[in-house]
Here is the input.
Amino acid sequence: MTTEIDAIRTAILQGAPADELGALPLPAGVRGALVKASEQEMFAGMASEDKDPRTSVHVEDFPLPELAPDEAVVAVMASSINFNTVWTSIFEPLPTFGFLKRLGKESVWGARHDQPFHVMGSDAAGVVLRVGSAVRSWKPGDTVTVHCNYLDDQDPTAHDDSMLATNQRIWGFESNYGGLADLAIVKANQIMPKPAHLTWEEAAVNALCNSTSYRMIVSPNGSQMTQGQSVLVWGATGGIGAYACQYVLNGGGTPVGVVSSESRATLLNEMGVESVIDRRAEGYKFWRSDTEQDPAEWRRLGKKIRELNGGRDVDIVFEHPGRSTLGASVFVAKRGGMIITCAATSGFMIEYDNRYLWMNLKTLKGCHFANYREAWEANRAVCEGKVHPTLSKVYSLDQTGEAALAVHRNEAEGKVGVLCLAPEEGLGVTDPEMRERLLPQITLFRRHAG
Ligand code: NAP
Here is the structure.
């Protein structure tokens, strides 16, 4: 650790005033979790499940770039593993260096991102240390979280709904200098206030998954669920699923949660989700072979949903496993219902029976992360204690590869946190009374993980 980083960490832990934090010298080299362009072929020919992020992720120093006028340097106290960390670290579906190259061609500032290394990470909680000359709303000393919608606000297509911008990117996945580092470079319009009642690691895990689920469930850009509707949530204790369940419950809807173990079913019940399907115990086999699906299995799932859901089909399906489930999802949504999808973890070449979609007037809708306003509203729900972090396990930055492997292998519940500058768990809370009041909900996933 450099003396500059040590001084930054000490000043934050001692609650140094803003002017002191803003005057601290920044190091030339910063520790971060990164993959290397020279290694992007290392897993060639291997099956996805055999690709091990522990061999591709390096935690080492990288040179800190010059700050653009609309950016800030954030001292990252904690970050999180997202599934995009897994994609980056196993170079699937393609290496991320192509994204960095394209960004590099866009502008002088974009060129900083085109490097032979990629510092990963699309979440962060920490303290602003420096702001560029065009930053108005944030200053050194602000305690913040960071969302990952990275866009060019001079592009006309970035206005209205910024997720429709032609060159919209995900920070730390399609851009460099992400959150899995001691210092991160972020655009000012990625910054949001840190929830005062949460620790650094609890605050760091929400932005990406929480905002995605907000858009999918609550926003008019997603399914805009209304009171009394029911939602089938795949992976209901996973990164995005556990936030989706919270939004369905908060909005007066009924989640039907799908998980793959008894222990996860219990966790769902503790969250207040009463209708639970254990997909492993049920033994669904939607694909008979690599090329043929089994509609009888879709019907079996539909029957189970009706049993749990007062005889009704679901209004909305929260879909992300992709190839393995989408055929079933299209089948089980009610007549006129919506299947909203943001991913394809099990494969992106999808097959479903279109007759069930058009004859029953269903909608299949794509959804991706969230615009600033949606991320802000989702963050506000966390700040107000209406949505809770789903942190189940915490790793150190040095263990990023191991943490990514746990997510890759579907071994972790909810979210996995990573300590960067925070020397231990439990720090960063500035509203202990609110924390005390909400402690059982805040720590539910952590307690469950044991
Ligand atoms: P996660 O924490 O690994 O959770 C996903 C859950 O899905 C798993 O816990 C698993 O739950 C379930 N699942 C996995 N494979 C399945 C399959 N073949 N069939 C049925 N269920 C399966 O991941 P996440 O953070 O929730 O992310 C899920 C996907 O969404 C990833 O592909 C990620 O890249 C994507 N994503 C996209 C966006 C976006 O903005 N577009 C944002 C966030 C995430 P059970 O085993 O318990 O059923």
